[in-house]
TrEMBL record:
Stated family: Belongs to the YciI family.
Pfam families noted in UniProt: YCII (PF03795)
InterPro entries, sorted: Dimeric_a/b-barrel, YCII
Species, as recorded: Sphingomonas metalli
Domain of life of the native organism: Bacteria
Domain YCII-related, residue spans: 1-78
SUPFAM superfamilies for this protein: Dimeric alpha+beta barrel (SSF54909)
Protein name per Swiss-Prot or TrEMBL: YCII-related domain-containing protein
Length: 94
């Protein structure tokens, strides 16, 4: 699993102007099974996305994010190998 941390580099008003296409991009990934979850940080300084696949796949996919295309956020990628999971999350193992 790859955790992608987004940090906004522009005002939130500019982020919000591109949020519709960004959400469509996330929903497409959810429908394909790639996306595990996504959400905004609190306070609103960026977001977090968890995806299946390799780091290389996640980096290539993230380059297609409307936020990346318009240089609205910086991306950090963290590979995680879950070892302890709560009930109902067994599918995240391995």
């Amino acid at each position: 699993m790859i955790i992608i941390i987004l940090n906004y580099v522009v005002p939130v008003e500019e982020i919000d102007a591109h949020r519709g296409p960004h959400l469509a991009w996330l929903h497409e990934a959810a429908a394909s099974g790639r996306l595990l979850f996504a959400g905004r940080q609190v306070p609103l300084t960026g977001g977090m996305i968890a995806v299946r696949g390799t780091r290389e796949e996640a980096e290539a996919w993230a380059r297609t994010d409307p936020f990346a295309i318009h240089n609205l956020a910086e991306y950090r990628f963290i590979e995680v190998a879950p070892s302890v999971l709560g009930p109902g999350l067994e599918a995240l193992a391995g």
